[in-house]
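Hi V.,

Quick status before I head out on leave. The structure for the redesign project is tokenized and pasted below; the design run finished overnight.
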């Protein structure tokens, strides 16, 4: 143990003698790891946040297809679905998207029953008439609107539509409700010009989670023009989207990987004359090949572990403390009113281990192999730098 500690002490002093070279390696090494870790940490956190919100999503969403495209679904379909064994509450939903050309933002409009308390109110109260609406905090900020003011929109006929803001609300996660405007079902049907008896889609509650796929098959069989979408399919879609976007980001930062590869290759192709002379002197004064390799192994471990920890720390600060300002615009999606939410620190240990395996081991190999080649040569030749 004393022998290993002495070699470790010598390794630290050896690195200190070449501090500027080693510091430049650590900077490049840390930057590479920080970039890759930022993408992985951000993607994993967004996926976990989205999946946590979708826990309360309906088991099945039923859409109607006409010509392969989403079409309005008859409300009468809900009565057919209710008769399927194992089905709980069936709820036709009225909702849609609205583009505000004045503020250049997209809103999501949702219809609810008058008096229904579906969201936690921040101010005011829930809507009680067709002339009222409640809005999410993102809409309130974009419109500079407050409770009691009128919200001005343009309906499907191109006519101005005004409704009183009865309150603003928040949900468990503003990830989905930041751009939301809630009106009564009747008011929203009139705003979009929907015929009576039609809804945007139908949500279905299933008592037994293991029967969701079976219920979806029965719905498809009873109503061939529908597309039942299960919660598992929704979760898979969001996971695929975030994986695709993270893959795109990793592709963009391939240049940093190439830079690190060049660094590792340059390290592997040989060591400097000064390092060769140092190894030759150590061999001449009695160090054996194993001691030299242990010394270089310690040097590689110190640089790689220091760089890895520094890179992971920088990525953590960038993602979870600064909310990833460099990456969030790409991964968050298209919404102009995407909420300014704080990312919850979700860290996947498997990803960190894989990242360490792909970055630390190649550098360690590029450090030890050329040193071994020099250590087995004649000490006199090594001291001459041959």
């Amino acid at each position: 143990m004393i022998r290993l500690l002495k070699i470790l002490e010598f390794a630290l002093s050896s690195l200190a003698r070449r501090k500027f070279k080693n510091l430049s390696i650590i900077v490049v090494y840390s930057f590479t790891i920080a970039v890759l870790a930022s993408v992985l940490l951000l993607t994993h956190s967004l996926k976990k946040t989205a999946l946590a919100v979708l826990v309360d999503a309906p088991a099945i969403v039923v859409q109607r297809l006409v010509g392969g495209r989403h079409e309005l679904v008859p409300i009468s379909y809900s009565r057919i679905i209710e008769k399927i064994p194992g089905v709980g509450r069936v709820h036709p939903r009225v909702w849609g998207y609205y583009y505000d050309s004045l503020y250049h933002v997209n809103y999501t409009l949702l219809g609810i029953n008058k008096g229904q308390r579906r969201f936690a109110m921040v101010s005011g109260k829930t809507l009680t008439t067709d002339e009222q609406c409640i809005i999410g905090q993102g809409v309130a900020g974009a419109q500079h609107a407050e409770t009691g003011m009128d919200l001005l929109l343009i309906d499907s006929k191109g006519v101005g539509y005004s409704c009183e803001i009865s309150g603003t609300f928040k949900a468990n996660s503003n990830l989905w409700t930041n751009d939301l405007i809630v009106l009564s079902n009747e008011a929203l049907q009139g705003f979009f010009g929907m015929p009576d008896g039609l809804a945007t889609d139908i949500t279905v509650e299933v008592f037994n989670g293991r029967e969701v796929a079976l219920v979806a098959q029965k719905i498809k069989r009873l109503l061939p023009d529908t597309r039942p979408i299960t919660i598992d399919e929704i979760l898979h879609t969001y996971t695929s989207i975030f994986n695709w976007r993270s893959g795109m980001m990793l592709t963009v930062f391939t240049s940093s990987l190439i830079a690190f590869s060049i660094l590792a290759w340059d390290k592997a192709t040989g060591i400097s004359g000064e390092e060769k002379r140092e190894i030759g002197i150590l061999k001449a004064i009695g160090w054996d090949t194993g001691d030299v390799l242990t010394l270089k192994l310690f040097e590689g471990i110190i640089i790689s572990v220091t760089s890895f920890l520094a890179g992971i720390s920088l990525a953590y600060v960038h993602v979870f403390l600064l909310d990833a300002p460099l990456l969030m615009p790409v991964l968050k999606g298209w919404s102009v009113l995407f909420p300014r939410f704080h990312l919850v620190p979700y860290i996947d240990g498997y990803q960190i281990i894989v990242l360490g395996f792909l970055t630390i081991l190649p550098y360690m190999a590029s450090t030890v192999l050329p040193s071994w080649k020099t250590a087995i040569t004649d000490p006199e030749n090594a001291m001459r730098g041959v």
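Above is the designed sequence. The chain has 14 helices and 14 strands.

G. will cover questions while I'm gone.

Best,
W.
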